[in-house]
Design a protein that fits this description.
By secondary structure, the chain is α/β, with parallel strands linked by helices. Among the domains are: 18-28 and 59-295, 3-Layer(aba) Sandwich (Rossmann fold), CATH 3.40.50.10420; 399-470, no CATH class. The chain has 23 helices and twelve strands. The protein has a six-stranded parallel beta sheet with strand order 1-10-7-4-2-3, sandwiched between helices. β5 (208-210) and β6 form a beta hairpin. The protein is globular. The termini are far apart. Bound molecules: iron/sulfur cluster.
Length: 485
């Protein structure tokens, strides 16, 4: 059985984003980009590109050999004293975790940051069963207190200012909180420390699963992951099946890419490696391997590269759309370009079909992606799937949009229709034209002009292009690329 999901209305969500949220988002992403830029520059551009290529190749190799690496992983985890569970979807994964908690009579749980647990609505499922769940990553702790969703995959509370967080702590924790980051961190630490000591279960995600040794690798900057996975008597890790990699050599490459792209550091502060159970740690280690639509994504030869993602967040930091609408506009668990690609594939186009359109296709995300995911190509492909009626979800595109796409293709493919269309546009625009601009157009084009004017149709593109090519502009045949006028 699937967990119920709500339809994402990106357009409506965008209207909710306040100027304060946008300003806080831009401020944080600007800093993240500057730090990343410095560390990549120090690494050397050519070396960095080679490392990215290596990261891409080994992630693609892992993804196309899951049939080899997942069974090997299961064998090694089991041999080390852990237990592997396979979950086809969110409901199954939540059921497994609830069942383990019930068997150990668990009342409270500490969690380190896990996007997959957000994806399956784990907190909601556990709280509905009467369990107390404490997020222990500082950003997750803040958004949990605020009753919000994360707005960034690596910095969940990036949309909030220190003043807002201090207000939140005063209201919810009843403490004297000042807007000083170090003091706020200390308050969160004091609040969480007893929970680490008394929790009956620790839950984590995982950045990578190393098949050759059956090791779960968790990368954090706060140390909360280490406390959540070692202090409670039971540790449950929930990880997507795509996170498996062959060996430690692969991990060495990916960790270099991840640390630089996420936090602009050479290495992340805490790299926790867990192989089965340990004498001094939890008595039980459970690994829940989650599919939840990933096998379906894998079957699409273009879209499958979405699963190469190592959740660094760099594509979000550079994305002009993300920086103008904030993370909550994407509705789901994943935001920015990765959200625009992944969420519709996980939820289906019927529920999230608008997200692939939430992109200018400028390509900055692909240039920043440490594992070279061709994000614009995948978004275009998903738009195409959406317009054609996604095979998994059935037709979902409004007839008007389909008709417009069909008409556009016909007009752009025929010089005579193109000329006729240009003449018609020049005539029809007359009542709306103000100088060289169309500041206000009727519906549905007013969606565009509500935000910015549209340039008036001049109807001289073909003659301008003819003159330009006759003047000998260096245009590469068939590409349209050449010197700018
Ligand atoms: S798509 Fe690439 S840049 Fe974006 S989060 Fe994933 S790995 Fe990072």
């Amino acid at each position: 059985m699937k967990e119920p999901m709500e339809k994402i209305d990106f357009r409506a969500n965008v209207q909710q984003a306040s100027p304060a949220v946008i300003a806080a988002t831009r401020n944080s992403t600007r800093t993240a980009l500057r730090i990343r830029g410095d560390v990549v520059h120090a690494f050397g551009e050519e070396r960095w590109q080679r490392l990215r290529q290596a990261g891409h190749d080994l992630r693609l190799h892992s993804l196309t050999h899951l049939d080899r690496y997942l069974p090997l992983l299961e064998e090694r985890v089991t041999a080390a004293g852990g237990r592997v569970h396979w979950a086809a979807d969110a409901a199954e994964a939540n059921g497994i975790v609830r069942e383990i908690a019930a068997r150990h009579n668990v009342r409270s749980i500490v969690k380190s940051k896990s996007m997959v647990s957000e994806e399956i609505g784990l907190n909601h499922s556990l709280e509905a069963a009467g369990l107390r769940v404490y997020e222990t990553d500082l950003g997750e702790f803040i958004v949990q207190l605020a009753g919000q969703k994360p707005s960034h995959i690596t910095a969940p509370a990036l949309h909030m200012t220190k003043e807002e967080i201090a207000r939140l702590f005063r209201e919810k924790l009843k403490v004297d909180a000042r807007p000083v980051p170090e003091e706020l961190t200390e308050l969160a630490r004091q609040r969480l420390r007893p929970e680490f000591l008394s929790a009956g279960m620790g839950i984590s995600g995982g950045n990578f699963l190393i098949a050759e040794t059956g090791t779960l690798l968790i990368v954090t900057n706060e140390g909360n992951g280490r406390l959540s996975t070692t202090l409670p008597p039971v540790h449950v890790a929930i990880v997507g099946i795509e996170k498996v990699i062959p060996d430690w050599e692969s991990a060495a490459v990916l960790l270099k890419l991840l640390a630089r792209s996420t936090s602009g550091s050479k290495i992340t502060a805490y790299n926790t490696c867990i192989t089965g159970t340990r004498e001094a740690g939890p008595q039980e280690f459970h690994l829940v391997l989650l599919d939840n639509g990933r096998s379906r994504i894998l079957a699409d030869p273009i879209a499958r590269e979405t699963l190469l993602c190592i959740r660094c967040g760099a594509c979000m930091n550079i994305c002009p759309v993300y920086n103008n609408v904030g993370g909550h506009a994407y509705g789901g668990v994943y935001q920015g370009p990765i959200g625009a690609m992944l969420t519709p594939q996980l939820m289906g186009t019927r529920l999230a079909g608008g997200l692939p359109f939430a992109s200018t296709l400028c390509g900055a995300c692909a240039e920043f992606c440490p594992v070279m995911i061709p994000i614009p190509e995948i978004l275009l492909h998903l738009r195409h799937r959406f317009v054609e009626g996604d095979a998994c979800e059935g037709p979902s595109v409004p007839g008007l949009l389909k008709a417009a796409a069909w008409a556009g293709r016909r007009v752009l493919g025929s010089p005579s229709l193109y000329r006729l269309g240009g003449r018609m546009a020049r005539t029809l625009q007359a009542p709306f034209r103000r100088g060289d601009w169309l500041p206000s157009l009727p519906a549905p084009l007013n969606r565009w002009t509500a935000a910015r004017p549209f340039p008036a149709f001049r109807g001289d593109f073909r003659s301008w292009w003819g003159k330009r090519t006759a003047a000998g502009s260096a245009v590469e045949p068939g590409t349209g690329r050449g010197a700018r006028p």
